[in-house]
Amino acid sequence: MSSLHHPSCFCSRCPGNHHGAVTFVLGALDGDPVKLNLLKDYVSKALHNLVNGLRASSFNVIYVSDEVSKWCDRTVTWTPETANQAISWIRTLTCDSGADPAEALAAAVEDPSCHMVYLVMDALPPRILQNIYNFLARDENTCSVNVVYLLEEPKDWQREGAFRTINLKPLGSSNKVKELELYFTT
Predict the structure, then answer these.
(1) CB-based contacts of 138, cutoff 8 Å, min separation 6
(2) Which CATH number covers residue 67?
(3) pTM score, two decimals?
């Protein structure tokens, strides 16, 4: 696993009624930089909206390509500053192929404070889904796991994407996330 990128990792409780920790795992399975940009924007927007949408007090980001890279060695308290630091790190990620989402999921759940994982990927082929299910079957106490993946192949110029979310643990339904306007330069 590569070295940590967040210079001052700390873990403390966030005041107020927020609780729990969320880890975002992102990776483009086939190494497509256009897809990776869509995934980076998805996670960046999720970090900005974390306090309003999810009841979370802390978060972490893990990138999976040919190796697993953690932004921090554990979840950190959610603040606008830490979210911006994570987004800056996300923007530096480059595209490589060879991602193993099950390995990244294992890295996410090794943090005992992690209550929910979002695997944000460009696709969900049956082989990858089976590997994730096999991993989850080995430990019934694993936190909640959701997979968010692109529904269609983006074009070189595409600035938006449609995503589907599947709740893997606890096993639940899937739903299509509305088309998202994602702005970036390619």
Answers:
(1) none
(2) 3.40.50.410
(3) 0.78
